[in-house]
């Protein structure tokens, strides 16, 4: 399992109620089901992934965060997880608001566009960056709203969203993010992982 | 001797108060079972049939000598595995395969009820079948499932008996019949009633049968069970055993001939009055209204784990209507899964060999059974 998934699972409290938005083939969802809480369900847009989730015995709804979160009442989940998909939505701000309406807490991870390799890519090659955590080309990327760790941090700050935990993955090492080290983390981390609350 | 003498029947002695206000008792519910009930009695699945289905869900129907309507989904090692589960399927109240319906004999007159039969509802059908569960002394059903009108019965069953079914799989259905569907049913009913042989519903007494009308009803309905793409692919404008148009009203086109065939085989196995009564029951179905306009309230007392399935090309019970059920369940935090199966076979997809559908059904049942009853999680 991806290191990122392990870190997300560690943030989820035992026996809590969890919604995994964009749960893919259910890898993280099944891990959470097995080891953290059985009260977990997923939303997934791809039909073949939904089938994979069903075959793993997971409760999954075919749908997506932009159109289907509205049906859940306020604070109906303890944790709502959004792993590396915020940047792919048409309206990430609306998705984030919905996430924190439906969930008491949100776990959001983002691929960091501020990483030094990404910056060098554009600076020296003059082409849109293609890296290990951002593998797509400009014309086929699902990412509409790329952001950096710093962007996301400032955005949440501006929206008065509270950070319970701010973590950065830098070459498989887990580090914490704070206002004082924000610029460094933004330069050297591939992924940002945030436990947030309204 | 009656042709239904040899099939399984339970005569319900209790009184059943129908939605129309009448009370019935001493009435038969015909049923079939597949597989074996285990000693823990935790492997029972109640399957509800659709408009023209019956209790013979799989194997050869002993009356019609045709394959059961759910042969692709139900049987040994199939999605609903009869080696593993005990399946009960009953002919609905109002039906014509041995259950109490308009073709049953009225003891007061010695003749069939015809349209003296009370107007029944989906609620009445479900309540009648509940007696069957009590008869088998089953306290917990592992699953209730069915497609189309069968799916409506699934929803009604969970609403009426919130603590009986561990899981529920409503397939290609709705929580309230749409204007389009009422309209289509009305078309079928008018076709039957316009047939002079219908005789105001007393055709058995008159020794006739409104088979022309029933056949037209079936032809129209059959189109609604398919999709434009499926019809186009299967028939297109192909001609029926001829090289050119005949400039007549014969069945020039294959689609015409196909529909005529569908109509004519249907009248051999189905009673016209049953068709009127059962379509009426579907039209009256409105679970939302029954719960004050809030469908969620129908399920709020239930812990049942739901899995809802719809099909992309189903325009009779489209995904949007199935999703309304998902939304109602999510809004009360119920355990609900949902998948829309890609299929060009229209509403009939649930009856056909659609591998993604059958795989989803099988996987949901088997993983749920393992979790709920084998590991006891």
How would you describe what is shown here?
The complex is a heterodimer of chains A (198) and B (377). By secondary structure, chain A is an alpha/beta fold. Chain A has one domain (3-113, 146-197): Rossmann fold (3-Layer(aba) Sandwich). Helices cover 35% and strands 25% of the residues of chain A. Chain A is built from 8 helices and 8 strands; from the N terminus they run αβαβαβαβαβααββαβ. Chain A has helices at 3-11, 27-35, 47-55, 65-68, 92-102, 116-125, 149-158, 182-188; strands at residues 18-21, 40-44, 59-62, 77-83, 103-111, 162-170, 173-176, 191-197. Chain A has an 8-stranded mixed sheet with strand order 3-2-1-4-5-8-6-7, sandwiched between helices. In chain A, strand 1 (18-21), helix 2 and strand 2 (40-44) form a beta-alpha-beta unit. The longest helix of chain A is centred in the middle third of the chain and has 11 residues, at 92-102. The mean pLDDT of chain A is 95. The longest helix of chain B is centred in the last third of the chain and has 20 residues, at 355-374. In chain B, strands 1-4-8-5-11-12-13-14 form an 8-stranded mixed sheet, with helices on both faces. A two-stranded antiparallel ribbon of chain B has the order 2-3. A two-stranded parallel ribbon of chain B has the order 6-7. Chain B has helices spanning 122-135, 149-160, 179-194, 211-225, 228-234, 254-269, 272-284, 287-290, 296-299, 319-330, 355-374; strands at 9-12, 16-17, 23-24, 27-34, 44-47, 74-75, 80-81, 86-90, 105-106, 111-112, 141-147, 165-171, 305-311, 336-341. Chain B has 377 residues and is α/β, with parallel strands linked by helices. Helices cover 35% and strands 16% of the residues of chain B. Chain B has 2 domains: 9-179 and 280-374, Alpha/Beta hydrolase fold, catalytic domain (Rossmann fold, 3-Layer(aba) Sandwich); 182-273, Orthogonal Bundle (Rna Polymerase Sigma Factor, Chain: A). In chain B, helix 1 crosses helix 2, helix 3 (179-194) runs antiparallel to helix 4 (211-225) and helix 4 packs across helix 6 (254-269). Chains A and B meet through helix 3 and strand 3 of A and helix 10, strand 14 and helix 11 of B.
């Amino acid at each position: 399992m991806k290191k990122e998934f392990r870190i997300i699972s560690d943030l989820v409290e035992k026996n809590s109620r969890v919604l995994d938005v964009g749960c893919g083939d259910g890898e993280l969802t099944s891990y959470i089901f097995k080891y953290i809480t059985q009260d977990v369900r997923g939303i997934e847009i791809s039909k073949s992934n939904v089938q994979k989730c069903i075959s793993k015995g997971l409760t999954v709804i075919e749908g997506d965060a932009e159109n289907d979160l509205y049906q859940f009442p306020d604070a109906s989940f303890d944790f709502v997880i959004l792993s590396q998909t915020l940047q792919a939505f048409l309206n990430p701000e609306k998705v984030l608001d919905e996430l924190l309406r439906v969930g008491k807490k949100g776990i959001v991870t983002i691929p960091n566009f501020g990483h030094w390799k990404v910056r060098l890519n554009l600076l020296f090659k003059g082409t849109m960056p293609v890296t290990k955590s951002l593998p797509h080309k400009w014309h086929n990327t699902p990412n509409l709203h790329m952001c950096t760790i710093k962007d996301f941090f400032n955005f949440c700050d501006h929206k008065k969203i509270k950070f319970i935990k701010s973590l950065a993955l830098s070459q498989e090492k887990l580090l914490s993010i704070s206002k004082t080290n924000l610029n460094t983390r933004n330069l050297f981390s591939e992924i940002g992982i945030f436990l947030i609350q309204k | 001797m009656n042709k239904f003498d040899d099939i399984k029947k339970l005569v319900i002695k209790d009184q059943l108060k129908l939605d129309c206000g009448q009370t019935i008792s001493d009435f038969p519910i015909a049923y079939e079972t597949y597989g074996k009930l285990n000693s823990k009695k935790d492997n029972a699945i109640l399957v509800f049939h659709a408009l023209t289905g019956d209790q013979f869900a799989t194997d050869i129907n002993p009356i019609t000598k045709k394959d059961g309507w759910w042969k692709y989904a139900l049987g040994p090692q199939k999605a609903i595995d009869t080696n593993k589960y005990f399946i009960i399927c009953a002919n609905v109240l109002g039906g014509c395969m041995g259950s109490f319906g308009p073709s049953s004999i009225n003891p007061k007159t010695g003749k069939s009820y015809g349209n003296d039969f009370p107007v029944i509802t989906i609620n009445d059908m479900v309540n009648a079948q509940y007696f069957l569960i009590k008869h088998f002394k089953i306290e917990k059903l592992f699953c209730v499932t069915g497609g189309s009108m069968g799916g409506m019965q699934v929803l009604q069953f969970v609403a009426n008996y919130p603590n009986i079914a561990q899981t529920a799989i409503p397939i290609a259905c709705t929580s309230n019949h749409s204007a389009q569907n009422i309209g289509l049913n009305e078309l079928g009913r008018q076709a039957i009633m316009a047939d002079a042989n219908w005789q105001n519903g007393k055709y058995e007494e008159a020794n006739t049968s409104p088979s022309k009308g029933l056949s037209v009803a079936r032809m129209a309905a059959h189109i609604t069970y398919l999709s434009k793409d499926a019809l186009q692919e299967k028939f297109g404008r192909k001609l029926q055993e001829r090289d050119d148009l005949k400039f007549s009203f014969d069945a020039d086109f294959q689609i015409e001939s196909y529909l005529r065939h569908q109509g004519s085989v249907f009248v051999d196995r189905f009673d016209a009055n049953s068709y009127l009564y059962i379509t009426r029951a579907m039209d009256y179905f409105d679970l939302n209204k029954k719960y004050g306009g809030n469908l969620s309230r129908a399920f709020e007392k239930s812990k049942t784990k739901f899995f809802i399935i719809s099909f992309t090309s189903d325009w009779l019970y489209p995904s949007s209507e199935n999703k309304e059920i998902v939304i109602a369940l999510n809004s009360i935090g119920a355990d609900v899964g949902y998948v829309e199966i890609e299929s060009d076979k229209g509403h009939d997809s649930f009856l056909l060999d659609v591998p993604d559908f059958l795989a989803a059904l099988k996987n949901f049942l088997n993983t749920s059974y393992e979790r709920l009853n084998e590991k006891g999680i």
